[in-house]
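seq as requested:
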Amino acid sequence: MQRLDGWLAEERETFADRTDKLARGVPENVGPYRATTAALGEKVAAGLLAIEADSDGARRRFDAASNLHAGAADAGTNVVAERYFALRAATLAGAKQAVPGLARQLLRAVEHATLPDLDERGALDINYYRALAAGAGGDAETVAEATDRLAAETTRLTRQGFFETTGREERRLYGGRVAFLEGVLDGDPAAVGRGIEGVLAHHDGGVAGTATDLPCREATFLATVATAAGLDAALPESDALMTPLVDATALPDGLSPTQSLSGRPASDG
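C-alpha cells:
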C-alpha cells in the first residue's frame, strides 16, 4: 500500500476542492461534475479504509458520494446508474434512513428506462439494479423476476460469445451477480459467497493501476446485503472486502437478518 499513500493525499485534496466548487455553484455542467466527483469520493473512502483504517472518514465520504450521485441523477446524468451508485454508497455509509427512499428512486428510474435503447451491458445492468432495488423493499417476487431475466440474458450472451470479446472477468462479474441474487432468494450462503467471488474476480482482473489496490465497493455492498439477510456465513476472505463497513444496520427492514427473500416463485423459463 506504500505507493497509494501519496495518491490518497492528492485525491482527498482534489475531492475537497471539487465539493467546495459544487457548494459555490462554480461548474456549469453540474450533472457530470457531480457524477465524477462522487466516484472520486468513493475511491477516497475506499483508500481511507485500505491505507489508514479510517472507517469514520470513509463513512463520511461515502455519504457525501451518495448525495452527489443522487444529484447527478436529478440532473439527468446516467440516471439509472447514478441512482444505483447513490443506493450503494448510502449502504456503505451506513445511512439506514436514506436507503429505502434511494431504493424507491432507483426502482422508478429502472421502470422508466427504455430497453430498446440499451446495449447488452445496459440490459444486464437494468435487471441487476431492479433486483437490488426490489430487494431493499422486501419484494421477493420482483427480485425473482429480475434475477430470472438477468440469468437468461447472461446465459444467452455467454453462448453467443459476447463475453469472449469483453474479457473472462466480465463473464465472472455477471455470473457472480446472478449467483448472488439466486443465493439471497434461496437463502443459500454458499451461493452468495460464490457470487461475491465472481464480483471480486472482475475487480482483481480489471482496470490496471491504483484502483486494483483499493477495496471493491460492489463486493462490499453485496456483502452488506448478505449480512443484513443473515447469509454471511460463506463470505470470501479477501482484503478487497471492506470488513469495517459490513454492517447489517445499513439496510432497511426489507432485508433483515431474520427475513431473507426465501420462497421465490417458480421461473417461467
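Residues 131 and 200 are 20 Å apart (CA to CA).
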